[in-house]
Amino acid sequence: MDINDIRSLVTLLSLALFIGLMVWTWRPAQRAAHEAAARLVFEGDDGPLSAAAVAEDHTRGSRA
């Protein structure tokens, strides 16, 4: 088995993994999860933040 056989095998395995992930992700059972994730952007939206709220958030850091 030379290097080109190994490269071909890796390419085929990568393609199979990609196709498997696409099938698993877009299966009909995942539809509810996708719709819920799409709505997350709009939940809890209280309007634009004030400059003071943004500054306070930056001083606290991202470790809330």
**End-to-end separation:** 54 Å
Integer count of domains: 1
Low-pLDDT runs = none
Helix content: 55-70%
Q: What is the overall shape? A: elongated
Provide the residue-averaged pLDDT: 83
Number of extended strands = 0
- What is the CA-based Rg, rounded? 22 Å
**Major β-sheet annotation:** none
**What is the strand content?**
under 5%
Tell me the structural class.
mainly alpha
Transmembrane segments: 6-26
Pfam families: FixQ
Protein name: CcoQ/FixQ family Cbb3-type cytochrome c oxidase assembly chaperone
Organism: Ideonella azotifigens
Write up what this structure looks like.
The chain is mainly alpha-helical and 64 residues long. It has one domain (3-60). Helix content is 66%, strand content 0%. The chain is built from 3 helices and no strands. It has helices at 3-25, 31-39, 51-60. The relative contact order is 0.06. This is CcoQ/FixQ family Cbb3-type cytochrome c oxidase assembly chaperone. The chain crosses the membrane at residues 6-26.
Keywords:
single chain; 64 residues; mainly alpha; 66% helix; elongated
